[in-house]
Design brief:
The protein is of the alpha+beta class and 429 residues long. It contains six helices and 25 strands. It has helices at residues 9-24, 26-30, 99-128, 146-158, 173-182, 189-198; strands at residues 32-34, 46-50, 74-78, 81-90, 168-171, 203-204, 207-211, 217-219, 230-231, 250-255, 263-264, 269-272, 276-278, 286-290, 293-295, 299-300, 307-312, 324-325, 344-346, 353-360, 365-370, 381-387, 390-399, 404-417, 423-428. The strands form six sheets. Strands 1, 4, 21, 22, 23 and 24 form a six-stranded mixed sheet that branches. Strand 6 and strand 7 form a beta hairpin. Helix 1 (9-24) packs across helix 3 and helix 5 packs across helix 6 (189-198).
Length: 429
Amino acid sequence: MANTNTMTLTDKVTNHTLALIETNSVMLKMVKRHLDFAGNLKYGSTIRVPKSIYLQTGSGLSIASTINDIEQGDVSITLDQHVNLSIKIDRRQLAEEFVDETTRNISESAARTIVQRLETDIMDVAYKNTYHMVNAGTPNTAPSTVLEVAQGDVLMDENGIPNDMERMFVISPSAMAVLGSALQTVFVNRIAEKAIEKAYVGEMAGLTLHKSVNVPEHLNGRHTTGATPLITVAGQSVTHVSTLSGLSSQTILTDGWDGVASTLTRGSSFTIDDVYRVKGNAGKEATGELQVFVVNSDVTSTGAGDMTMNISPAIITDGPYQTVSTPVDLGGPGVAGPDAGAPINMIGTELASQSQGLLFVKDALCVAFGSFAAFEGGSVESTTANLNGVSLTVSKFADGTEFTNICRWDLLYGIAVLNSHFIARYSAA
């Protein structure tokens, strides 16, 4: 670290703000960071992160039909999130006797605001790209029992998440208050004491619980009134080869919506009758629970009540990347994929919002930070620094009309879900 006696104001503010971001951000500690200490990533840069490889076993002497092809997919992270923050400072506050206090005050305020924006963006991207849901049968309900929390741990087990990965559960303060209140009478004194004193639970049922005011709210579209949505044609499934780039997704054709009045918002969830979630193990056994799908973009029905939706996961009915089991897989009638006329069941109340808690492990999400070239020359003073992969630029320039200085912070990053099997949603009121 540079000698503090020779550091400029922007040096001090940059270092102090970065340290506070690192200390105060809950989500940054729980996700992967792409490290760019060389400063090569700029606005619009794209990096590609390899996806997990899944394999399938066979039986008996012959391997002719079960040789696994290694087809490595990837997820792209584009650095397109440019966040800036600016503060006007009376130049009298920068006098030598006030500069340290001013530096501390503006750094603390800036860090607090930047952390809120950063965590909001991380969780917003996360939930909109996540299709697994713990409480799809009882949405809009905060967890209030050990069993309800444990269902998240069960889902992670069934998705094949290794037990040595820490499993995090982030919910809103109101949902944590409901859970803490409900657990005040549990037998384990350590948990009950925390629940009573701080509405805090800590570790429970294999999960580490956290609360965050930045947990996103999802607003559903108009999907119930006048609508009886159905799958239009049978056999709408794909092969995993078509989903190697990016997250697993495909387009499906549906009908039965309410003319041009039905709308679905990005992040809305639904199930399809007789399309079941499979386990993440080599056998891909059906769980008996309907697979939850997520809508990848806003969409409106046509005048005829038809709707073409892009959804995740893709409907893949065999192979190591299988996502669902359908009636034909279970020995029943039908085709590989949903049957024509299969009902679509939207999750949640139309035109209502629900808090979107997240369960995940560190390998589920990645944030990549880029950097800006520091300003040079003139009356501008600028510093760019990096701490544990987080890059921040702070600049100061004079406003002579009001005898003030403008101090601005610039942060550049991109966010992506790396492994959709390693993350799930918990929809609470």
